[in-house]
Amino acid sequence: MSIDTSAAPLPGVLGSPGEPWPCQNDPDLWFAESSDRVEAAKQLCRQCPVREVCLEGALARREPWGVWGGEVFERGRVRSGKRGRGRPRKCSVA
Q: What is the pLDDT along the chain (94 residues), one digit of tens a residue?
């Protein structure tokens, strides 16, 4: 799988011409099913110079799934994180 970044309107965002974005090294990582690989993708996103632009674009396009701008998308929306221990559930358990 490869990601075409040539049409991305990001002039002046990257440090030097040809500098790779973190997602170009292992594109499959951003669409992984294991939680360890998803967390690894999110960690790489935190260091990316275009993270905010990537997230805004994914929200605008309603990306169906994957890690975009450091957030996990599901059905076109950012998936909320796991609930911490001790927090009440949204619905009661029978």
A: 444 444 444 444 544 556 678 888 888 999 999 999 999 999 999 989 899 999 999 999 999 999 999 999 999 899 886 544 445 556 665 5
Q: What is the DSSP string of 7-47?
A: T---TTTSSSTTPPPGGGT-GGGGG-SSHHHHHHHHHHHHT
Establish whether 54 is an annotated binding residue. Answer: yes
**Sequence spans of domains, the chain:** 23-78
Residue 48 assigned ligand-binding role: yes
The verdict on whether residue 91 carries a ligand-binding annotation is no
pTM of the model: 0.66
